[in-house]
Design goal:
This protein is an alpha+beta fold. It is built from 3 helices and 7 strands.
Length: 123
Amino acid sequence: MILPLSDEVTAVNTPGEIGDRVVALMPERHLYGPVLARPNPARYTFLTHYDRVTEPEVVETLLRYGVDTGPYRANVILPTGLGPITREERYWLCSPRPDEPLPPLTLLLEVVAACLETPAAPE
C-alpha cells in the first residue's frame, strides 16, 4: 500500500539509532504519531503533518546525520500485514490511531535536532 505525501502529510526518515532516541523523547514532548520501522538497514519513518517548508540550513544539517524529510509528492510504502515481518520489510513501530492528529513537522524536527545534539546513551 502506498501513501502519497502531499501538502498535508509528509515523512521524516532517520537512521535507526536516531529514530530510537526520537521515539523515546516523543511522549516527553507530548508528540504522538505513526512510526514505521525497517530492520535492514535500520531506518524509521515518522509520518507528520506538513506545517511549513524546512529551512535549507536545517535540511543540510539533517542530511549530514542521514535524516531526510520526504519530498513533496513522494510516497511512503505502508505495511500490509501485522507483525515485524511483512512482505514490504517494514512494520508499524507505533500504529496510526483513529482521530489522533499527526505531529507537526516542525515539532518533530525539533525533537530530531535535540537527539542530534545529545550523544547516544552507552549500551
